[in-house]
Amino acid sequence: MLRRLKDRARAVRRDVHALWLAARDPRTPLPARLLALLIAAYALSPIDLIPDFIPVLGLLDEAILLPLAILLVIRLIPAPLLAEFRATAAATEARPGSRVGAAFVVLVWLLAAAGLAWWFWPRTAA
Q1: DSSP letter string over 33-53?
Q2: Of 49, 50, 43, nearest to 12 (Cα)?
C-alpha cells in the first residue's frame, strides 16, 4: 500500500509539471492554459490556502482538491499534447531540483505579502 501511495504521489508531481509545461505551450487551448497555470502555480507554491496545521482541512487541498483539479485540467488538454508534456516531465524528474527556483517562488510570495501589508497598513493623515 505504501508503494502505491508513493507511485501516486510521483504521478501527481509529474502531472503538475506537465500542467506547467501545458500552461506555457501555445498549442494548448486557452481555457486549459489558464487553469493549468493556476493549478500548477498553487501546487508548486510553498504557501497553502488552507494551512496544513489545521486538522483534517489542512490536508484537504493536497489530498482531494488538488488531484481533482489536476484531473479536470488534464481532460481539457488534447491527449497527444498531454502525452508529450508527461514524457517531458518524466524525463526532467530525474534531474536535481532548483534551489534558485524555490527561492524565487518564496521571494515572490514575500513581496506580494509585503505589498499587501503596505497597501492595507493604517496611515495617519499628516
Answers
A1: HHHHHHHHHHHH-S--SS-TT
A2: 43
Distance CA 1, CA 17 (A): 25
Which residues in 1-126 belong to E strands, given as ranges?
none
How far apart CA 13 and CA 48 sit, in angstroms, is 16
Percentage of the chain surpassing pLDDT 90? 32
Residue carrying C-alpha cell 502505491: 4
Distances in whole angstroms, Cα of residue 21 to Cα of each of 69, 90, 91: 16, 12, 13
Q: How many residues does the chain have?
A: 126
Backbone angles phi, psi at 22, to 5 degrees: -65, -35
Does the structure show a pLDDT above 80 at 57? no
- Mean pLDDT over 37-54 rounds to 77
**DSSP letter at 65?**
I
Say if CB 89 and CB 17 are below 8 A apart: yes
